[in-house]
Amino acid sequence: MRDLVRSYGKTLTTIFVALVCFWVLIMIVLPQAFMIEQSLWTMQRDSALGVKIDRAYADLATMNYDLGNARDESAKTALQAKIDALQAGISDMEQRETKPHKIYGLQNYTAMSGLHFRIFVKSIVYALAVTVLALLVCYPLAFTIAKLATPQRAALLLLGLVIPYAINELLRVYAWLMILDYQGVINSALEALGLVSFQDKTWVPFLEYSGSVFVALIYAYVLFMVFPIYNTVETLDKNQLEAAEDLGGSIWRTHWRVVIPHAKPGIAVGCIMTFMLSVGSYSVPQIMTRGKSGDWFSQLIYRQFFETQSWNLGAAYAFSLVLVCLVFILLMMKLFGVGIRDIAK
Amino acid sequence: MHGKNVELDKVVMRFGGFTAVQQTSLEIRAGEFFSILGPSGCGKTTILRMVSGFIEPSEGRVRIGGDDMGGRGPARRPTALIFQNLALFPLMSNWENVAFGLEARGLDKRTRRERAYELLALVGLEGKEAQRPGALSGGQRQRVAIARALAVEPAVLLLDEPLSALDLKLRQYMRAELKAIQRKTGVTFIFITHDQGEALTMSDRIAVMRAGVVEQVGTTDEIYDRPATPFVATFVGENNVLSGTVAEADAAYARIETPLGPVRARNQDALAAGQRAMVFVRPERASLVNGHDLDNRLTGRFERRDLEGSYVNLFFTVGDQPFIVHEPNLDRQAALEGEVRLGFQADDAVAMRAGALDDA
Ligand SMILES: Nc1ncnc2c1ncn2[C@@H]1O[C@H](COP(=O)(O)OP(=O)(O)O)[C@@H](O)[C@H]1O
Ligand SMILES: [Mg+2]
């Protein structure tokens, strides 16, 4: 802090610090805090309240009529007191109807139905599978670009990986939809080979398999796996590979003992990003399955917010997902023996 | 462990249109300490990589122990390479580094560990087995690299300027150490260096290279006392150079006319009258005349005197070129001043066909 003041002066430092605080508050703390708060309460709504209020108004009218006909002074005051009490009761009930009670507790978290819980677990398992598949695809790719390709070819390959990202994610996913559709590119090719027939509807229903979502997810998030791994492998001294080869190490052993230990932070970051992006992805499963092979948890959350209007439940679902991601991060750090500092690199 | 001989048979290495190593034939004997000496970029590493199998020569053959190495990768050659930057595995402990080659050969963990500990003891690193290379000093890392290379029991150890990263004291110490390890193991060492002092103190024989060409192969004494080319004469040790034209020559001696007067020297290249020639005289073979009867005499202007310890470096200007004389430091030199008479014997000077000098 004092270093900052020394090198940038008081004004600039204040601006820096203010910006950082603003960023932390607006981008990190507020949305999460809002979501956690939402997830921790439910409305106490008494559905009979409206009827009770109506009945009270009827009683009130009767009492007012009685009051007009009453002769006895003492009976009058007694009635007046009753009317006042009733009126207070009505306004209290009315208050409760417009501003219902919040009841805090963990009920939103425990309220998940068996079906939703199955979807929750399924989504996590699928996201893990996507992560593993993406790692299997991306590690060799990243290694090839970093260590085997000539610099020009490596640049071309990286460019080739980045270019599709200039296109909107939705369009990229739709491209896969067209490839895998009933009468899509692959099935057309199969028909041309005489293996399927559009007329008899004997096409391969790729889109009804979860595999199609996997493919699209891997495709959508390949970069987030390739780049961190590429960056770490890039820094590996080429002589280490040659030394391992010279000492008789096979390709497998060299990777297992030399390259992977070196690339661990990159692998951890790649897995974390891919997992978080896939477990939270809404558009990819939505587009790819067209609702045909069951919901992903992200679609459930969306529905809680925008279709059933149960924001509290939605917030609890969403926050459960955040917790899963946090657990996953910790797990990866433990598994790969890397600290938060290595990951930040 | 046994050393094997290494034979380069008319080997050429081209990278695209660039020839890094011109046609070269070398015979390195089993169990010898052989150095390849030359300035940076002359093709030393390229030769080493052809022997270790990382690159295949564009032409010619490499044979080790009589076996043709064509088509055999580094893992299948009886060689081990010590890289210029050592290339230790930083995330493994020292003993695991040493054991890596044994692991690749499928030895079980206990045997690997025992063998690695033995080798680390051989290079004087007891107690450092469990540490990582990063925790060691430069010289210690060097030894880990040597132990790791020896672990695969190579017949030929290839060393690519392994001492260049060390400071002077350590370098001198490691020279002796390397030599001792070579004697102890009997492995053939091919040692690359651009430091002529290193090559002279450590080697049995030296090949001196310039721009992809091996200019001379010989014992250290031959290289120093009988340089074959002007480049070797100037790259290995110091030499004074006088240029001129041969006036008369016989089988043993030639008389060369130089701008500084006639000079008699050994006629190593069988020069004939009329040819351009260069005459080389080592500073320690030249002396102040002081009444001696010397074959060749020059007059030089005294410039300065540098004390080197056991000898002094006397700098003169003869004509318009520098001339250096080493005199033993006997503490009885009169102060030098102005014009001084210098000289050297014809047997201590060598005349060669004019050619490229060490330009460094
Ligand atoms: N793989 C390669 N591709 C192209 N040129 C190379 C390659 N390896 C070495 N060279 C060139 O060959 C020459 C000799 O290199 P090198 O053998 O490394 O020299 P030294 O080890 O003597 O310093 C240099 O000019 C270098 O640029
Ligand atoms: Mg080199």
UniProtKB/TrEMBL annotation, chain A:
Q: Name one GO cellular component term.
A: plasma membrane
Membrane-spanning intervals of the chain: 12-34, 119-142, 154-177, 209-230, 266-284, 315-336
- This protein's major location comes to membrane
Q: How does it sit in the membrane?
A: Multi-pass membrane protein
Q: Which InterPro entries match?
A: MetI-like, MetI-like_sf
Q: Which BP terms in the Gene Ontology apply to this protein?
A: transmembrane transport
Output the superkingdom of the source species: Bacteria
Presence of keyword Zinc-finger: no
**CDD domains linked to this entry:** TM_PBP2
Instruction: Please report the name of this protein according to its UniProt entry.
Output: Spermidine/putrescine transport system permease protein
User: Ranges for the ABC transmembrane type-1 domain?
Assistant: 120-332
Q: Which UniProt keywords apply?
A: Cell membrane, Membrane, Transmembrane, Transmembrane helix, Transport
Q: Where in the cell is it found?
A: Cell membrane
Q: Which family does it belong to?
A: Belongs to the binding-protein-dependent transport system permease family. CysTW subfamily.
Indicate the segments annotated as coiled coil, or none if absent.
none
Automatic annotation (TrEMBL), chain B:
Q: Which organism is it from?
A: Tistlia consotensis USBA 355
Q: Does the record bear rRNA-binding in its keywords?
A: no
The protein's UniProt keywords, in alphabetical order, are: ATP-binding, Nucleotide-binding, Transport
Task: Tell me the organism's taxonomic lineage.
Answer: Bacteria, Pseudomonadati, Pseudomonadota, Alphaproteobacteria, Rhodospirillales
Q: Which region is the signal sequence?
A: none
Where is the chain membrane-spanning?
Answer: none
Q: Which GO terms describe its biological process?
A: quaternary ammonium group transport
Q: Which InterPro entries match?
A: AAA+_ATPase, ABC_SmlMolc_Importer, ABC_transporter-like_ATP-bd, ABC_transporter-like_CS, Mo/tungstate-bd_C_term_dom, P-loop_NTPase, Transp-assoc_OB_typ2
What name does UniProt use for this protein? Spermidine/putrescine transport system ATP-binding protein
Q: Give the matching SMART domains.
A: AAA
The ABC transporter domain covers 6-236
> Can you quote a single GO CC term?
ATP-binding cassette (ABC) transporter complex
Q: Name one Pfam family in it.
A: ABC_tran
